[in-house]
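Obj.: predict assembly geometry.
Materials: sequence records (below).
Method: joint structure prediction, all chains together.
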Amino acid sequence: MGEEKKKSEKLTIVLHSGDMDKAYSALIIANGALAMGMEASIFFTFWGLQRLRKDKAFAFPPAGLEKGPLSKMNFLGLGKWMIKQRMKKANVVSLEKLMADFKELGGKVIACDMTMEIMGIKPEDLRQEWIDECGGVGGFIQEARESGVVLFI
Amino acid sequence: MGEEKKKSEKLTIVLHSGDMDKAYSALIIANGALAMGMEASIFFTFWGLQRLRKDKAFAFPPAGLEKGPLSKMNFLGLGKWMIKQRMKKANVVSLEKLMADFKELGGKVIACDMTMEIMGIKPEDLRQEWIDECGGVGGFIQEARESGVVLFI
Amino acid sequence: MGEEKKKSEKLTIVLHSGDMDKAYSALIIANGALAMGMEASIFFTFWGLQRLRKDKAFAFPPAGLEKGPLSKMNFLGLGKWMIKQRMKKANVVSLEKLMADFKELGGKVIACDMTMEIMGIKPEDLRQEWIDECGGVGGFIQEARESGVVLFI
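Observations (raw structure tokens):
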């Protein structure tokens, strides 16, 4: 205890998926944890890291927080469009807003440096206003072993 | 200790996926935990929540516990049919039976209320005999921070 | 603590997915944990178990550690080939090498016996040099409840 938070009071997520619905789950869970007084970190890797890239019209794989497909029944974007319409009607906020809340509540964003090297992504390609650090697996393990809740999404 | 179970004695699963093979993994793990004296909760969200809906011939997305596709090599249902045949031969029980066991062993089913709102699902559309409560992210975080094992599936 | 490792010093992964990118994430995380002095176990189940099968030209589903598709944008293998090229350029080692390191660092490989029965896989079909034991959900729960970090991949 003392200087260190109790283990159960920290949440760490690996966001490996770049799917829209999974990014929603990750940020809603993380923001819920922050709202309840926990610490929260998200480690963006592989397809997930594409969501931290600046929006670009013709990037491959698609770049930008709102640019991920649905994990199922995407139907070339039609399913995603339908889900987004229903979300609007149910007053669910955008991923952009969820990320802004995550940062404001003190959440920590870590960009996977190995994915950056593999995909040829430079720091200036990423939304720097969100990123707390670039790191590798060692940093993740350090976060995870201090966390009571660790999720791979 | 005392009134509260030891943290390691509780398992919480978020079932985000609606895939048949992942529903099997979730229920087999949860029932294993219950059989070994742990508590277990499953929080059904997004595609996973579709598995709690009453069977319907033409629902979109498909509704019903046995109606999920395979996560890979589904081939319009052919792969799923093959896996089901092999499961029958290996005496693996149905999802319906696994869910009945889960409930009988004291497992807790939570239906995600935000998904219900987004997808326009009403309580009467769900298999009420299974559901212990409808809840949001706050309830999940509460379960998760008391759990020694938390899985996102 | 005495004879038993502290709970936070152990990592357990269920590898349900057979996707190449997810096998990379699982082994990189597990090897990172081992390198930092933790214990690590991977429980290979369902599609993940196919990665422990001996390479075969026409197996269905595809057998062999390097034979998994990408989880997204596989494009009949083209996307996977591109990612592999980029990995080579970034000096990322093969899954074969990661598995050899995992074993050398003391990692434990458990093959799911229920999947073997469903898929008709015999022990001699698997890479025996990697496998520490065949086991079921009971063994997994035992590992998981002793682990500080448990991931479903």
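Conclusions so far: Chain A touches chain C at residues 7, 14, 16-19, 45-47, 61, 69, 114, 117-120, 136-138, 140-142, 144-147, 150-152 (CB under 8 Å).
To do: check interface contacts against the pulldown list.
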